[in-house]
Amino acid sequence: MIELTSISKSFGGTQVLDNVSLKVAEGRVTALIGPSGGGKSTLLRCINLLEIPDAGTLRLGEAAVEFHPGHRVGWDALQKIRRQTGMVFQNFQLFPHRTVLENVMEGLSTVLRWPRGKAEHHARALLVKVNMEHKANAWPATLSGGQQQRVAIARALAMSPRVLLCDEPTSALDPELATEVVEVLGKLAGEGTTMVIATHDLRLASRVANDVVFLEAGKVVEQGSSDLIFGAAVEARTRRFVSSINVAQQGA
What we know:
about 250 residues; alpha/beta; 9 helices; about 40% helix; about 25% strand; globular
């Protein structure tokens, strides 16, 4: 469903992505892992064009965009991609002046122009899905970090995206609260939700992902099934990275 071909991206004189290619099949979960600064979050943001690649091709469903240095991507092309994606950020980004229910309803009401009754019914169903229906009338400031992230997931799902993109969804949470989010993402994966998750949380990646892409210095070092990457990686660099994380987690 998603195909990235020869994607490159630089910031100033620093090349963050270097000729990256990958495919994401519908109904599968792909985890982007690697050391800090390896390019995983930038690659994720290129999928919904929050960052515009310098070169390469992006295809999402039937929409495709080619990127060339100095060429500006048109608004219609951007929207054809963005309308198919939902984004979950590491710092939640809920509207503080909206209740939990209103946060989830916001896009349905303002973008899709749904009647309030229809939007509220759909939003409440999504809150049930992420186990937050009991906080529908609460303000974001009264919620724990794990609860805020689950609301953010519900809000991202409200527009019925073809793919859910998660940028370090557990990085701002302590282990107990992170578990709440991992459980919700695992539930969505079990329901066949297509997801791409940029994460340094190897527990999340190994539990939820079908496929894993290991990035370092803006390049794909190795990609394959979750079982392969975490259990029998081909590249020594991949094995060393996964091993170091496992040792750190066991020590914690």
